[in-house]
Design a protein that fits this description.
single chain; about 140 residues; alpha+beta
Length: about 140
């Protein structure tokens, strides 16, 4: 994604997002950028950003490669602690995604999950995924 497309994508999503949260944009090579978000951005907000940036140029049916990292604290779903508690997960849109309204994430130990956006509390463990965990380079 080039700088102009990134600006359009950010402006477009910011128009509909209540919590924009971007604190800096740093170039990291040809048409690659690191976006840093305010620590107050929540998990679902980060998921929406990854999804929105991935599909930001639908007019030409081009998907961009976008990865986001989210540091979880303690996570409970339906009263049960989750195995990804206190881990930083890598959020991405699976290359086989056709629904355009979810993201996946992978843990440092290679466990994959699907996060649909349609309803709350609906995280689904997956047997596998198309992305391997890449540590966030700081």
């Amino acid at each position: 994604m080039d700088k102009e497309q990134l600006k359009k994508a950010i402006d477009s999503f910011s128009d509909i997002s209540e919590n924009e949260g971007i604190t800096s944009i740093t170039p990291e090579g040809d048409n690659q950028f690191r976006l840093t978000f305010n620590p107050s951005l929540d998990y679902i907000g980060m998921c929406y950003w990854v999804n929105s940036l991935t599909y930001s140029d639908e007019s030409v049916q081009r998907r961009f490669l976008v990865r986001g990292w989210y540091p979880f604290g303690e996570v409970q779903l339906n009263g049960e602690l989750q195995p990804f508690c206190n881990q930083t997960v890598m959020i991405y849109v699976d290359k086989d995604d056709t629904e355009h309204d979810n993201v996946s994430f992978v843990t440092p130990d290679g466990k994959h999950y699907l996060q649909p956006f349609s309803i709350g509390n609906n995280l689904k463990p997956l047997d596998s995924g198309n992305e391997k965990y890449i540590p966030m380079n700081e």
